[in-house]
């Protein structure tokens, strides 16, 4: 099992890392530098990629190695995956070696073997140092600088890998946190193989939605909590690069959703978690998520409300000028959110969370965390459903604040249902979650209409007289949208109330 923490640094910082005082203090023996050339194989249909495997031949310091890796998982930069490696006499795949692995069945088909061909390659210089810690843990630090190639396309490599050879993964996070105080590093969520496949496809990256969770029905509450946090972290990191590049507003939405799901997970397990341990991280999530919320609100203001109004009043010059000013305000909020995500404090947040999860101390003495998962999940779902019913008891009389609280309750129940869905039959879970999603969409529309009015004073700050008429148009649009959504809310609420709670036995 390969356990590795990947850190992304610009080339100058990569050179500084080698000379860092902490690295010098931990170093055992001399550094070794060599040129590494790797060729990754797959079929034209990418059969190995679909199977979650990476197969490569590597020339490392004059010797050939054959390596097979599983997809594994990545959380807070920590990569966990199975790996098999064999020395070879020459540059040629040896299928006999693959037959000794649990993945042997994939490689038995003669057609697949015949179709395997180079998909992409990596070429980089690697400097390796062995680090020793006081508790006996051993780590290999690899500084890689080079590129990934696929045809005429290439992508740079400039990263540090901390691979655990023996001992505790806690040491990896502790070391990375110390290094982050002196170096502008980022956590790397994609392996060289993942980056190579993306390069070979030649397709632009797309925003990634949350993956379906797989929970062990016989597992503990602690194991489920860790699995959910890992999933939320992977969701967030998969969208981080696209958000920083500013290519698509959906990246902002997905990063924010991932962070909200993460916070919802901590809220869901609040009663059984040691709060003093996790409270600092939870508070950091709240504070660092604030710029994302502000940027998303302005994105909705511009792209939903103003675009809808412009479609109806295309010849309204004052509205066009107002829209341009709001776009500039929105871009300012987006840059602030991007700066927050690019900052060292953001990276340290996820390193600190990774450290907490890697150290099992948070589970000690918390007997509720050892309880069976099924009963715990059913009880939580029942509590969340009861809270939602209470919020909507007088649905017709709710003001915007009351509808906002109703929306939060619906969102918490939906996230809980999605987190625990794998524990129950899909045919019972799906209609319930779909009903919640429909209600959440309506409540989200109502919240967007209310947000327009909250942002309007800022948008009008220093405005000239014509903008006042535009403000009236926006207020009218918000009122009309609210009226329509209120009708839809009644139907969505009734539909949800008719759903059978899937966590209750038939």
Please supply descriptive tags for the structure shown above:
506 residues, alpha+beta, Hypothetical Protein Pfu-838710-001, CHAD domain, 3 domains, eleven-stranded antiparallel sheet, 16 helices, globular
List the helices and strands and how they pair.
Elements: E1 2-8, H1 11-18, H2 21-26, E2 27-42, H3 47-50, E3 53-60, E4 63-70, E5 73-75, E6 78-81, E7 83-88, H4 95-98, H5 110-115, E8 117-132, E9 138-150, E10 153-166, H6 170-180, E11 186-187, H7 192-201, H8 221-245, H9 249-268, H10 275-312, H11 317-342, H12 344-358, H13 373-391, H14 400-420, H15 426-460, H16 465-497
Antiparallel strand pairs: 1-6, 1-10, 1-11, 2-3, 2-8, 3-4, 4-7, 5-6, 8-9, 9-10
The gist of it:
The chain has 506 residues and is α+β, with helices and mostly antiparallel strands.
Helix content: 55-70%
Cα gyration radius (Å):
26 Å
CATH topology of the largest domain: the name is Hypothetical Protein Pfu-838710-001
Count up the helices: 16
- Provide the CATH superfamily of the largest domain: Hypothetical Protein Pfu-838710-001
Question: Do you know the CATH architecture of the largest domain?
Answer: Beta Barrel
Walk me through this protein's architecture.
With 506 residues, the chain is of the alpha+beta class. It folds into three domains: 2-203, Beta Barrel (Hypothetical Protein Pfu-838710-001), CATH 2.40.320; 207-367, Alpha solenoid (CHAD domain), CATH 1.40.20; 372-506, CHAD domain (Alpha solenoid). It is 56% helix and 19% strand. The chain is built from 16 helices and eleven strands. The protein has helices spanning 11-18, 21-26, 47-50, 95-98, 110-115, 170-180, 192-201, 221-245, 249-268, 275-312, 317-342, 344-358, 373-391, 400-420, 426-460, 465-497, and strands at residues 2-8, 27-42, 53-60, 63-70, 73-75, 78-81, 83-88, 117-132, 138-150, 153-166, 186-187. Strands 1, 2, 3, 4, 5, 6, 7, 8, 9, 10 and 11 form an eleven-stranded antiparallel sheet that branches. α6 runs antiparallel to α12 (344-358), α9 (249-268) runs antiparallel to α10 (275-312) and α15 packs antiparallel against α16. The longest helix has 38 residues, at 275-312. The radius of gyration is 26 Å and the shape is globular. The model has no long low-confidence stretch (mean pLDDT 90).
